[in-house]
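tool=predict chain=A
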Amino acid sequence: MRIGFVGLGMMGKGMAANLQSAGFELTVHDINRAAAAPFLDKGAAWADSPKALAAECDVVFTSLPKPADVEAVAAGPNGLIEGLQPGGAVFDLSTNSVDTVRDLSTTFAQRNLYFLDAPVSGGPGGAASGKLAIWVGGDEQQFQRYQRVLAAMGDQARYIGPIGAGTIAKLVHNATSAVMTVALAEVMTMGIKAGVEPLDLWEAVRQGATGRRRTFDRLEKFLSGTYDPADFALALLHKDVSLAVGLGKDVGVPMRLANLTLEELTEAVNRGWEKRDSRVSGLLQIERAGIPPLDVDPAKIQAILDSDN
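tool=predict ok
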């Protein structure tokens, strides 16, 4: 089985490395050829275009920043659709829009090809370690056919349902994450301004009923005020929540918190923070609350986290 991988960025490089470590033969492509060097050094083949890559592969995985990028790679000039043999499959690991993946699935089906949405969750660390959720929508037989390949990239690869189901699951997850980040910033600034030391407050509330579910463990960057380098860039979360809000509108579901969260993220983007960590929007609430910037020692935060193990 020859596997193609397009997009060797923060997420893609970890997943592709795990495929290579599992013994699969890879053909790779990226807009930046230098990103492919570590894989080529270990025996992967290079393709000059998505079309050329697809012509050599049974299945292709894509990990790209935006829906427009996926459309161009999958079905644009010299795209994957032009190179795949009948019966070939593409799994898109990106966070995409529901309309885009459904349209691409229809376009691919007209050529006896398969397009599945398979967004992932776990961040760059999970992509590198293999502790990664992969939510797949599309033809279930194709999921079963390539399940062992998916398992080499993520320990929680799951078939969700028809095309678009994986994307919906990812948008639900990431919109929830964004809303929680905004809510946590709001309540923590209230407690801090009311007079409780930030580290003491955090250590206390994380042992309450909600805290024991580790809701408050999300606050490590908020407490330390460190948002660079980004684990997950603000621009990407802004895109994900925009997609989730759009989906809610499409299906007639009110999403008040998600819309408020999108406004918060938009304000942070307009500050020029799009390349910073997605949780940087918490700085807006700190400003509104009129409290000094937080700078809790990251080592002290980690010590508390480690004490649970």
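The longest helix spans residues 165-193. The longest strand covers residues 156-161.
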